[in-house]
Amino acid sequence: MLGPVGAGGIGFLINQSIELFQFDEMLTCILVVLVLIVAVDRLSAWVRQRLA
């Protein structure tokens, strides 16, 4: 079964953190995902601009 984020990797960690009431670890995982999404989005926009 797939996790809520990704294919079980980071989603599993977030879900486990919630179940164990480790909200600081959960927030860290969510922030890492957010930073990665923004970085990949900016990189893809730069690549699209260079190719256009």
**Oligomer type:** single chain
Helix and strand succession? HH
Identify the overall geometry: elongated
Q: Would you report the number of β strands?
A: 0
Total number of helices: 2
List unreliable stretches of 5+ residues.
none
Percent helix among the residues?
over 70%
Q: What is the end-to-end distance?
A: 39 Å
Strand content: under 5%
Which structural class fits the helix and strand makeup?
A: mainly alpha
Describe this structure in words.
The model has no long low-confidence stretch (mean pLDDT 85). α1 (9-19) runs antiparallel to α2 (23-51). The protein is mostly helical and 52 residues long. It starts with 8 loop residues before the first helix and ends with a helix. 77% of the residues lie in helices and 0% in strands. The radius of gyration is 15 Å and the shape is elongated.
Give the SSE map.
Layout lengths: L8 H11 L3 H29 L1
